[in-house]
């Protein structure tokens, strides 16, 4: 799916299960904030 969405980025996480964001909130938040910073530059 990432290949067909312009400017998208596929991120795979070691934890690899659907709820990883709940169990690793610091890592999830960091990824989201990095994304927000990137799109604000447009």
* Oligomeric state as shown: single chain
Radius of gyration, CA atoms, in whole angstroms = 12 Å
The proportion of residues in beta strands is under 5%
Q: Helices and strands, in N-to-C order?
A: HH
Between the first and last Cα atoms, what is the distance in angstroms? 22 Å
DSSP summary: helix tally? 2
Averaged pLDDT = 87
Outline the structure in words:
The chain has helices at 20-23, 25-40. The chain is an all-alpha fold. It has one domain.
State the gist of this model:
This protein is an all-alpha fold.
Give the topology, please.
Blueprint: H1 20-23, H2 25-40
Keywords: Plasmid
Overview features:
42 residues; mainly alpha; 48% helix; 0% strand; flat; plasmid
């Amino acid at each position: 799916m990432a290949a067909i969405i312009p400017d998208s980025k596929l991120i795979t996480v070691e934890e690899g299960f659907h709820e990883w964001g709940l169990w690793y909130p610091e890592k999830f938040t960091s990824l989201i904030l990095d994304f927000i910073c990137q799109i604000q530059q447009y």
